[in-house]
Amino acid sequence: MSTSAVSTSAVNTSSVTVIGLGPMGQAMAGAYLDAGYRVTVWNRTASRADALVARGAVRAATVGEALVANEVVVLSLTDYAAMYSILEPAASALEGRVLVNLSSDTPEKAREGAAWAAKHGARHLTGGVQTPPSGIGSTEFDTFYSGPRDLFEEFKGVLKVITGTDYRGEDPGLAALYYQLQMDLFWTALTAWLHMLALANANGISASEISPFASGTLGGMGRFIDFYTPRIEAGRHSGDVERISMAVASLEHVVHTTRDSGVDATLPAALLETFRRGAAEGYEEESLTRLIEVFGRGAAAK
Ligand code: NDP
Known about the structure:
Blueprint: H1 2-12, E1 15-19, H2 23-34, E2 38-42, H3 50-54, E3 58-59, H4 63-69, E4 72-75, H5 80-87, E5 98-101, H6 107-119, E6 123-129, E7 138-146, H7 149-159, E8 163-169, H8 173-202, H9 207-219, H10 221-233, H11 244-260, H12 266-283, H13 291-301
Parallel strand pairs: 1-2, 1-4, 2-3, 4-5, 5-6, 7-8
Antiparallel strand pairs: 6-7
Bound molecules: NADPH dihydro-nicotinamide-adenine-dinucleotide phosphate.
NADPH dihydro-nicotinamide-adenine-dinucleotide phosphate binds at residues 20-25, 43-45, 48, 76-78, 82, 85-86, 102-104, 129, 132-133.
């Protein structure tokens, strides 16, 4: 019995199933093949597995077959609803599986997903991957994980084939929460750059001409974060460096420049509106860091 357990475990740590072969799942399955793992794959659109099969992956004919093939099952799906729609019909094959769920969703969905997996006898690790497909297979970037610590420790070696690991805690929602916090920043910052490009283009300036300036500004944001964080923690929002009244005037200039250029001003106008709310709440002469409270009150009111 113990011999068979050892040999099963040896096989299990060098073989995985990957379900979901969008750009991310394909990169993950590819990383496992590169690392010498035996890889079983399944995807709703079967043809997305073709290139991986040509490289040596095994295409499971059914989801059930994909689940029973390996103890570790990596899920890379659009959201948790996709997981239920794929796995519910094959739920009897979940017993004893380790679901490494790298699909993005809310913390609450991740908690529900972990409970659902446990109900079917599977263990669940929530993951939030912090790199696009190009970074998969490298430990240069980390994936947030949460769920049972012993489960994370047991399979850390398997997880490290995908990216570096950053364990956030036992609550299954934590990895999803940290991931969404990063996405909150990521989408806003990247969309701001796209808006900048539209404004530049409308004025005859190309992406390659303006983008170095964008990189300089975004690259310098860390210095702002380092400067403001201790002041925020200390409750210090004095207007000794900048004031909300200045930001309102500056954003009005951005909005007017945008409209004068015939470009959609929805994005800067939303920022202007937020700063005006800060001014109306009495923070006109204080730092923009007061917006944390302005945003926070909005959430509380909902
Ligand atoms: P995609 O949305 O392109 O693909 C995800 C997979 O989900 C596909 O295999 C798709 O199947 C499957 N799928 C979606 N809905 C269903 C459904 N109802 N039933 C069955 N299968 C379904 O995502 P990515 O590969 O880009 O990313 C995967 C996850 O990783 C997402 O949660 C994403 O937010 C996250 N992520 C993505 C990054 C990126 O740069 N792409 C970076 C970091 C995280 P089919 O092929 O049949 O359509």
